Protein backbone atom coordinates (compact mmCIF):
# COMPACT_ATOMS: atom_id res chain seq x y z
CA UNK A 1 0.00 0.00 0.00
CA UNK A 2 1.30 3.45 -0.81
CA UNK A 3 2.41 5.37 2.26
CA UNK A 4 0.74 8.74 2.78
CA UNK A 5 3.16 11.67 2.91
CA UNK A 6 3.83 12.86 6.43
CA UNK A 7 4.00 16.35 7.85
CA UNK A 8 7.74 16.75 8.34
CA UNK A 9 8.78 17.08 4.72
CA UNK A 10 5.75 19.28 4.03
CA UNK A 11 7.04 21.66 6.66
CA UNK A 12 10.74 21.41 5.90
CA UNK A 13 10.77 21.28 2.11
CA UNK A 14 11.66 24.73 0.71
CA UNK A 15 9.36 26.07 -1.96
CA UNK A 16 12.08 26.35 -4.62
CA UNK A 17 13.32 22.75 -4.29
CA UNK A 18 12.49 19.88 -6.54
CA UNK A 19 10.89 16.98 -4.64
CA UNK A 20 13.41 14.46 -3.35
CA UNK A 21 13.14 11.19 -5.24
CA UNK A 22 14.33 9.04 -2.32
CA UNK A 23 12.95 10.36 0.97
CA UNK A 24 14.89 9.16 3.99
CA UNK A 25 11.99 7.87 6.06
CA UNK A 26 8.31 8.19 6.80
CA UNK A 27 8.17 11.88 7.64
CA UNK A 28 7.83 13.00 4.04
CA UNK A 29 5.62 15.70 2.23
CA UNK A 30 4.74 19.34 2.79
CA UNK A 31 2.54 21.46 5.12
CA UNK A 32 2.24 23.90 2.27
CA UNK A 33 -0.62 26.09 3.48
CA UNK A 34 1.25 27.53 6.45
CA UNK A 35 4.57 27.55 4.61
CA UNK A 36 3.12 29.49 1.68
CA UNK A 37 1.23 31.87 3.97
CA UNK A 38 4.37 32.67 5.87
CA UNK A 39 6.31 32.96 2.62
CA UNK A 40 3.93 35.62 1.30
CA UNK A 41 4.49 37.77 4.37
CA UNK A 42 8.25 37.20 4.53
CA UNK A 43 9.11 40.38 2.70
CA UNK A 44 7.63 42.63 5.40
CA UNK A 45 10.83 42.35 7.47
CA UNK A 46 9.14 43.15 10.80
CA UNK A 47 7.81 39.74 11.84
CA UNK A 48 9.10 38.38 15.12
CA UNK A 49 10.55 34.94 15.68
CA UNK A 50 7.39 33.85 17.48
CA UNK A 51 5.26 34.74 14.47
CA UNK A 52 7.54 32.78 12.16
CA UNK A 53 7.69 29.64 14.29
CA UNK A 54 5.38 27.67 12.00
CA UNK A 55 8.04 24.93 11.72
CA UNK A 56 8.13 24.47 15.46
CA UNK A 57 4.35 24.32 15.61
CA UNK A 58 4.35 21.38 13.20
CA UNK A 59 7.47 19.42 14.15
CA UNK A 60 9.73 18.77 17.08
CA UNK A 61 13.49 18.99 16.58
CA UNK A 62 15.69 17.61 19.32
CA UNK A 63 19.25 16.45 19.89
CA UNK A 64 18.25 13.63 22.17
CA UNK A 65 21.54 11.97 23.08
CA UNK A 66 25.31 12.00 22.64
CA UNK A 67 27.56 9.02 22.02
CA UNK A 68 31.33 8.65 22.24
CA UNK A 69 32.78 7.01 19.14
CA UNK A 70 36.12 6.06 17.63
CA UNK A 71 36.94 6.33 13.95
CA UNK A 72 39.41 7.45 11.30
CA UNK A 73 39.91 11.08 10.35
CA UNK A 74 40.92 12.57 6.97
CA UNK A 75 44.58 11.73 7.70
CA UNK A 76 43.61 8.07 8.31
CA UNK A 77 44.53 8.45 11.98
CA UNK A 78 42.39 7.03 14.75
CA UNK A 79 40.41 9.63 16.70
CA UNK A 80 37.77 9.74 19.40
CA UNK A 81 34.79 12.01 18.85
CA UNK A 82 31.23 12.59 20.02
CA UNK A 83 28.22 11.99 17.77
CA UNK A 84 24.83 13.54 18.47
CA UNK A 85 21.45 11.99 17.66
CA UNK A 86 19.07 14.42 15.92
CA UNK A 87 15.41 13.48 16.02
CA UNK A 88 12.67 15.20 14.02
CA UNK A 89 9.05 14.32 14.72
CA UNK A 90 5.78 15.68 13.38
CA UNK A 91 3.51 16.77 16.21
CA UNK A 92 0.25 16.77 14.32
CA UNK A 93 -1.28 14.96 11.39
CA UNK A 94 -4.28 15.46 9.17
CA UNK A 95 -6.02 12.51 10.84
CA UNK A 96 -4.75 13.18 14.33
CA UNK A 97 -1.53 13.00 16.33
CA UNK A 98 1.48 11.45 14.59
CA UNK A 99 4.42 9.69 16.19
CA UNK A 100 6.51 9.20 13.05
CA UNK A 101 10.13 10.07 13.77
CA UNK A 102 13.27 10.59 11.71
CA UNK A 103 16.64 10.25 13.40
CA UNK A 104 20.26 10.49 12.33
CA UNK A 105 23.69 11.05 13.87
CA UNK A 106 25.84 14.15 13.32
CA UNK A 107 29.30 15.17 14.53
CA UNK A 108 30.08 18.63 15.87
CA UNK A 109 32.16 19.28 12.73
CA UNK A 110 29.04 18.77 10.60
CA UNK A 111 27.21 21.41 12.64
CA UNK A 112 30.19 23.69 11.95
CA UNK A 113 29.97 22.96 8.22
CA UNK A 114 26.27 23.81 8.21
CA UNK A 115 26.86 27.12 10.00
CA UNK A 116 29.76 28.08 7.72
CA UNK A 117 27.51 27.47 4.73
CA UNK A 118 24.76 29.65 6.23
CA UNK A 119 27.27 32.44 6.94
CA UNK A 120 28.35 32.52 3.30
CA UNK A 121 24.93 32.24 1.65
CA UNK A 122 23.10 34.54 4.09
CA UNK A 123 25.63 37.33 4.84
CA UNK A 124 22.86 39.77 5.85
CA UNK A 125 21.58 37.44 8.60
CA UNK A 126 22.83 37.22 12.18
CA UNK A 127 23.42 33.46 11.99
CA UNK A 128 22.92 31.70 15.36
CA UNK A 129 26.20 30.58 16.95
CA UNK A 130 27.22 27.07 17.93
CA UNK A 131 28.04 26.17 21.54
CA UNK A 132 31.70 26.26 22.49
CA UNK A 133 33.88 23.42 21.25
CA UNK A 134 36.00 23.50 24.40
CA UNK A 135 34.93 24.79 27.81
CA UNK A 136 35.85 28.39 28.60
CA UNK A 137 35.30 30.59 31.68
CA UNK A 138 35.00 27.56 33.97
CA UNK A 139 35.55 27.47 37.72
CA UNK A 140 38.54 25.41 38.83
CA UNK A 141 36.69 22.26 39.90
CA UNK A 142 34.95 21.89 36.53
CA UNK A 143 36.64 19.83 33.83
CA UNK A 144 37.63 21.65 30.63
CA UNK A 145 37.92 18.35 28.76
CA UNK A 146 35.66 18.35 25.71
CA UNK A 147 34.95 14.63 26.28
CA UNK A 148 33.80 15.18 29.88
CA UNK A 149 30.21 13.82 30.21
CA UNK A 150 28.87 16.99 31.88
CA UNK A 151 30.39 19.23 29.20
CA UNK A 152 29.12 16.95 26.41
CA UNK A 153 25.63 17.13 27.90
CA UNK A 154 25.69 20.93 27.99
CA UNK A 155 26.98 21.00 24.43
CA UNK A 156 24.17 18.65 23.38
CA UNK A 157 21.68 21.18 24.77
CA UNK A 158 23.52 23.98 22.96
CA UNK A 159 23.43 22.13 19.62
CA UNK A 160 19.70 21.52 20.03
CA UNK A 161 19.23 25.21 20.74
CA UNK A 162 21.20 26.05 17.57
CA UNK A 163 18.87 23.89 15.44
CA UNK A 164 15.81 25.44 17.06
CA UNK A 165 17.19 28.94 16.40
CA UNK A 166 17.69 28.13 12.71
CA UNK A 167 14.31 26.38 12.45
CA UNK A 168 12.55 29.42 13.94
CA UNK A 169 14.27 31.90 11.62
CA UNK A 170 11.90 33.02 8.82
CA UNK A 171 14.58 32.68 6.10
CA UNK A 172 17.14 30.14 7.30
CA UNK A 173 14.47 27.54 8.03
CA UNK A 174 13.65 27.29 4.30
CA UNK A 175 17.17 26.49 3.19
CA UNK A 176 17.70 23.27 1.24
CA UNK A 177 20.97 22.36 2.98
CA UNK A 178 19.40 22.78 6.43
CA UNK A 179 16.53 20.57 5.35
CA UNK A 180 18.97 17.90 4.16
CA UNK A 181 20.98 18.24 7.36
CA UNK A 182 17.92 17.07 9.29
CA UNK A 183 16.82 14.34 6.87
CA UNK A 184 19.73 13.01 4.79
CA UNK A 185 22.37 11.09 6.71
CA UNK A 186 24.52 9.87 3.83
CA UNK A 187 26.34 12.16 1.36
CA UNK A 188 25.20 15.32 3.13
CA UNK A 189 28.75 16.71 3.25
CA UNK A 190 29.18 16.12 -0.48
CA UNK A 191 25.94 18.00 -1.15
CA UNK A 192 27.17 20.99 0.86
CA UNK A 193 30.56 21.02 -0.84
CA UNK A 194 28.92 20.87 -4.26
CA UNK A 195 27.35 24.27 -3.57
CA UNK A 196 30.86 25.75 -3.79
CA UNK A 197 30.24 27.97 -0.77
CA UNK A 198 33.94 27.86 0.20
CA UNK A 199 34.83 29.67 -3.03
CA UNK A 200 32.33 32.43 -2.22
CA UNK A 201 33.66 33.02 1.28
CA UNK A 202 35.44 36.35 1.72
CA UNK A 203 39.05 36.12 2.88
CA UNK A 204 39.98 37.66 6.23
CA UNK A 205 42.70 39.73 4.54
CA UNK A 206 40.21 41.19 2.09
CA UNK A 207 37.79 42.00 4.91
CA UNK A 208 40.56 43.65 6.93
CA UNK A 209 41.61 45.69 3.90
CA UNK A 210 38.04 46.90 3.40
CA UNK A 211 37.75 47.85 7.09
CA UNK A 212 40.71 50.21 6.91
CA UNK A 213 40.23 51.58 3.38
CA UNK A 214 36.50 52.24 3.15
CA UNK A 215 35.98 56.02 3.04
CA UNK A 216 32.29 56.41 3.81
CA UNK A 217 31.23 53.70 6.27
CA UNK A 218 27.57 53.52 7.28
CA UNK A 219 27.30 54.97 10.79
CA UNK A 220 24.65 52.42 11.77
CA UNK A 221 26.96 49.50 11.03
CA UNK A 222 29.92 51.26 12.64
CA UNK A 223 27.86 51.73 15.80
CA UNK A 224 26.70 48.10 15.58
CA UNK A 225 30.30 46.89 15.38
CA UNK A 226 31.22 48.95 18.44
CA UNK A 227 28.17 47.60 20.25
CA UNK A 228 29.13 43.99 19.43
CA UNK A 229 32.64 44.62 20.76
CA UNK A 230 31.23 46.06 23.98
CA UNK A 231 28.70 43.24 24.32
CA UNK A 232 31.48 40.68 24.01
CA UNK A 233 33.65 42.54 26.51
CA UNK A 234 30.88 42.90 29.10
CA UNK A 235 29.70 39.28 28.88
CA UNK A 236 33.31 38.01 29.00
CA UNK A 237 33.90 40.04 32.16
CA UNK A 238 30.64 38.79 33.69
CA UNK A 239 31.58 35.17 32.98
CA UNK A 240 35.05 35.63 34.48
CA UNK A 241 33.56 37.19 37.63
CA UNK A 242 31.03 34.39 37.85
CA UNK A 243 33.83 31.77 37.66
CA UNK A 244 35.73 33.51 40.49
CA UNK A 245 32.59 33.76 42.63
CA UNK A 246 31.87 30.06 41.98
CA UNK A 247 35.34 29.16 43.26
CA UNK A 248 34.78 31.13 46.47
CA UNK A 249 31.27 29.79 46.91
CA UNK A 250 32.56 26.26 46.53
CA UNK A 251 35.03 26.91 49.34
CA UNK A 252 32.33 28.36 51.62
CA UNK A 253 30.05 25.37 51.12
CA UNK A 254 32.83 22.86 51.70
CA UNK A 255 33.64 24.61 55.02
CA UNK A 256 30.17 23.54 56.13
CA UNK A 257 31.29 19.97 55.47
CA UNK A 258 34.04 20.60 58.05
CA UNK A 259 31.38 21.78 60.50
CA UNK A 260 29.46 18.58 59.88
CA UNK A 261 32.52 16.42 60.51
CA UNK A 262 33.36 18.28 63.74
CA UNK A 263 29.78 18.06 65.05
CA UNK A 264 29.63 14.32 64.25
CA UNK A 265 32.92 13.65 66.06
CA UNK A 266 31.83 15.83 69.00
CA UNK A 267 28.52 13.96 69.29
CA UNK A 268 30.44 10.71 69.94
CA UNK A 269 31.80 12.00 73.28
CA UNK A 270 28.64 13.79 74.47
CA UNK A 271 25.76 11.89 76.04
CA UNK A 272 23.15 14.60 76.56
CA UNK A 273 24.06 16.78 73.57
CA UNK A 274 24.97 13.93 71.22
CA UNK A 275 21.68 13.69 69.30
CA UNK A 276 21.48 17.45 68.70
CA UNK A 277 25.09 17.64 67.52
CA UNK A 278 24.61 14.65 65.23
CA UNK A 279 21.49 16.21 63.62
CA UNK A 280 23.23 19.57 63.16
CA UNK A 281 26.18 17.79 61.56
CA UNK A 282 23.82 16.03 59.17
CA UNK A 283 22.29 19.35 58.06
CA UNK A 284 25.77 20.75 57.45
CA UNK A 285 26.80 17.71 55.38
CA UNK A 286 23.69 17.96 53.21
CA UNK A 287 24.31 21.67 52.69
CA UNK A 288 27.98 21.13 51.78
CA UNK A 289 27.20 18.40 49.24
CA UNK A 290 24.53 20.53 47.51
CA UNK A 291 27.10 22.94 46.00
CA UNK A 292 28.06 20.56 43.17
CA UNK A 293 24.50 20.46 41.81
CA UNK A 294 24.09 24.21 42.33
CA UNK A 295 27.20 25.09 40.34
CA UNK A 296 26.24 22.61 37.63
CA UNK A 297 22.89 24.43 37.32
CA UNK A 298 24.79 27.72 37.17
CA UNK A 299 26.72 26.40 34.17
CA UNK A 300 23.48 26.21 32.19
CA UNK A 301 22.83 29.89 32.85
CA UNK A 302 26.46 30.63 31.94
CA UNK A 303 25.93 28.77 28.65
CA UNK A 304 23.00 31.08 27.86
CA UNK A 305 25.29 34.06 28.35
CA UNK A 306 27.99 32.40 26.26
CA UNK A 307 25.54 32.09 23.37
CA UNK A 308 25.30 35.88 23.20
CA UNK A 309 29.05 36.16 23.69
CA UNK A 310 29.35 34.23 20.40
CA UNK A 311 26.45 36.16 18.85
CA UNK A 312 28.71 39.23 19.07
CA UNK A 313 30.96 37.68 16.42
CA UNK A 314 27.91 36.95 14.24
CA UNK A 315 27.00 40.65 14.41
CA UNK A 316 30.54 41.62 13.40
CA UNK A 317 30.34 39.21 10.44
CA UNK A 318 27.34 41.18 9.09
CA UNK A 319 29.24 44.44 9.60
CA UNK A 320 32.31 43.09 7.78
CA UNK A 321 30.20 42.03 4.81
CA UNK A 322 28.69 45.49 4.60
CA UNK A 323 32.16 47.07 4.71
CA UNK A 324 33.24 44.82 1.83
CA UNK A 325 30.21 45.82 -0.21
CA UNK A 326 30.77 49.50 0.57
CA UNK A 327 34.44 49.23 -0.38
CA UNK A 328 33.59 47.53 -3.71
CA UNK A 329 31.01 50.25 -4.35
CA UNK A 330 33.54 53.00 -3.69
CA UNK A 331 36.16 51.33 -5.89
CA UNK A 332 33.63 50.99 -8.72
CA UNK A 333 32.66 54.67 -8.37
CA UNK A 334 36.32 55.70 -8.33
CA UNK A 335 37.10 53.62 -11.43
CA UNK A 336 34.10 55.09 -13.26
CA UNK A 337 35.14 58.65 -12.40
CA UNK A 338 38.67 57.92 -13.64
CA UNK A 339 37.41 56.61 -16.99
CA UNK A 340 35.12 59.60 -17.44
CA UNK A 341 38.04 61.94 -16.84
CA UNK A 342 40.20 60.05 -19.36
CA UNK A 343 37.43 60.26 -21.94
CA UNK A 344 37.00 63.99 -21.34
CA UNK A 345 40.75 64.60 -21.66
CA UNK A 346 40.90 62.68 -24.93
CA UNK A 347 37.90 64.53 -26.30
CA UNK A 348 39.22 68.00 -25.38
CA UNK A 349 42.90 67.25 -25.86
CA UNK A 350 43.82 68.60 -22.42
CA UNK A 351 45.48 66.62 -19.65
CA UNK A 352 44.61 67.92 -16.16
CA UNK A 353 46.47 65.32 -14.14
CA UNK A 354 49.88 63.71 -14.35
CA UNK A 355 49.78 60.33 -16.06
CA UNK A 356 52.05 57.91 -17.85
CA UNK A 357 49.97 58.42 -20.99
CA UNK A 358 50.53 62.17 -20.83
CA UNK A 359 54.31 61.72 -20.53
CA UNK A 360 54.30 59.23 -23.44
CA UNK A 361 52.40 61.73 -25.58
CA UNK A 362 54.94 64.46 -24.85
CA UNK A 363 57.88 62.17 -25.64
CA UNK A 364 56.58 60.41 -28.74
CA UNK A 365 54.01 62.83 -30.10
CA UNK A 366 50.24 63.05 -30.34
CA UNK A 367 47.97 60.17 -31.35
CA UNK A 368 46.30 60.25 -34.73
CA UNK A 369 42.61 61.29 -34.75
CA UNK A 370 41.65 57.71 -35.66
CA UNK A 371 43.54 56.31 -32.66
CA UNK A 372 41.97 58.89 -30.36
CA UNK A 373 38.48 58.14 -31.65
CA UNK A 374 39.04 54.41 -31.15
CA UNK A 375 40.20 55.00 -27.57
CA UNK A 376 37.25 57.28 -26.86
CA UNK A 377 34.86 54.64 -28.19
CA UNK A 378 36.42 51.95 -25.97
CA UNK A 379 36.25 54.25 -22.94
CA UNK A 380 32.60 55.14 -23.64
CA UNK A 381 31.74 51.43 -23.71
CA UNK A 382 33.63 50.90 -20.45
CA UNK A 383 31.87 53.91 -18.91
CA UNK A 384 28.49 52.50 -19.92
CA UNK A 385 29.36 49.13 -18.40
CA UNK A 386 30.75 50.85 -15.29
CA UNK A 387 27.55 52.87 -14.83
CA UNK A 388 25.45 49.71 -15.06
CA UNK A 389 27.78 47.94 -12.65
CA UNK A 390 27.68 50.85 -10.21
CA UNK A 391 23.89 50.98 -10.40
CA UNK A 392 23.73 47.23 -9.75
CA UNK A 393 26.11 47.50 -6.78
CA UNK A 394 24.07 50.39 -5.35
CA UNK A 395 20.88 48.35 -5.58
CA UNK A 396 22.61 45.34 -4.05
CA UNK A 397 23.98 47.45 -1.21
CA UNK A 398 20.59 49.04 -0.47
CA UNK A 399 18.93 45.62 -0.49
CA UNK A 400 21.62 44.26 1.83
CA UNK A 401 21.18 47.14 4.29
CA UNK A 402 17.40 46.75 4.25
CA UNK A 403 17.48 42.99 4.85
CA UNK A 404 20.35 43.12 7.34
CA UNK A 405 18.74 45.81 9.44
CA UNK A 406 15.43 43.94 9.52
CA UNK A 407 17.24 40.84 10.80
CA UNK A 408 19.27 42.87 13.31
CA UNK A 409 16.03 44.30 14.73
CA UNK A 410 14.67 40.74 15.00
CA UNK A 411 17.88 39.71 16.76
CA UNK A 412 17.68 42.62 19.23
CA UNK A 413 14.14 41.64 20.18
CA UNK A 414 15.24 38.03 20.70
CA UNK A 415 18.33 39.11 22.69
CA UNK A 416 16.40 41.37 25.05
CA UNK A 417 13.87 38.65 25.74
CA UNK A 418 16.40 35.85 26.25
CA UNK A 419 18.89 37.75 28.41
CA UNK A 420 16.12 39.18 30.57
CA UNK A 421 14.74 35.69 31.22
CA UNK A 422 18.19 34.18 31.85
CA UNK A 423 19.26 36.88 34.31
CA UNK A 424 15.94 36.79 36.19
CA UNK A 425 16.15 32.99 36.44
CA UNK A 426 19.74 33.25 37.65
CA UNK A 427 18.74 35.79 40.32
CA UNK A 428 15.84 33.58 41.45
CA UNK A 429 18.22 30.62 41.72
CA UNK A 430 20.65 32.66 43.83
CA UNK A 431 17.82 33.78 46.13
CA UNK A 432 16.65 30.18 46.49
CA UNK A 433 20.20 29.09 47.28
CA UNK A 434 20.52 31.75 50.01
CA UNK A 435 17.18 30.71 51.50
CA UNK A 436 18.41 27.13 51.72
CA UNK A 437 21.52 28.33 53.53
CA UNK A 438 19.41 30.25 56.04
CA UNK A 439 17.21 27.19 56.48
CA UNK A 440 20.25 25.00 57.23
CA UNK A 441 21.39 27.29 60.04
CA UNK A 442 17.79 27.61 61.28
CA UNK A 443 17.59 23.83 61.49
CA UNK A 444 20.99 23.73 63.24
CA UNK A 445 19.75 26.34 65.72
CA UNK A 446 16.71 24.19 66.52
CA UNK A 447 18.99 21.18 67.03
CA UNK A 448 21.14 23.19 69.45
CA UNK A 449 18.03 24.49 71.28
CA UNK A 450 16.81 20.94 71.95
CA UNK A 451 20.03 19.87 73.64
Explain this structure to me?
The protein is mainly alpha-helical. The chain contains 14 helices and 3 strands. A 3-stranded antiparallel beta sheet has the order 1-2-3. The longest helix is centred in the last third of the chain and has 81 residues. The radius of gyration is 31 Å and the shape is elongated. The N terminus is likely disordered.
Read across the widest sheet, the strand sequence of neighbours is 1-2-3
Strand fraction: 5-15%
User: Based on helices, strands and strand pairing, what is the structural class?
Assistant: mainly alpha
Instruction: Estimate the helix proportion, in percent.
Output: 55-70%
End-to-end distance, in Å? Answer: 79 Å
CA-atom Rg in angstroms: 31 Å
Quick synopsis:
This protein is mainly α and 451 residues long. 65% of the residues lie in helices and 8% in strands.
Helices, strands, pairings?
Layout (H helix, E strand, L loop, with lengths): L6 H6 L19 H9 L13 H5 E14 L5 E13 L10 E7 H14 L27 H19 L8 H8 L4 H7 L2 H4 L3 H10 L5 H49 L6 H16 L1 H58 L7 H9 L4 H81 L2
Antiparallel strand pairs: 1-2, 2-3
Keywords:
14 helices; mainly alpha; 65% helix
Amino acid sequence: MEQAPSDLERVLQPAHLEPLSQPDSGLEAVVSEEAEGSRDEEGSGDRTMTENNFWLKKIEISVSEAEKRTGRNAMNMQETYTAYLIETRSVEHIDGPSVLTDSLWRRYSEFELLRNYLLVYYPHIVVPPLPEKRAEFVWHKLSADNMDPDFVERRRIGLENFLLRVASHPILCRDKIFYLFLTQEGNWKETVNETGFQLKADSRLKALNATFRVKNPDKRFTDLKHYSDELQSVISHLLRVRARVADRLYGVYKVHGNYGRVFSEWSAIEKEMGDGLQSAGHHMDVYASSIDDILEDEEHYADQLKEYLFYAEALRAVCRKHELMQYDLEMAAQDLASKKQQCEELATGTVRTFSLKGMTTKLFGQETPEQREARIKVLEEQISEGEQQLKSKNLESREFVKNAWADIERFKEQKNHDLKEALISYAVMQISMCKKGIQVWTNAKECFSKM
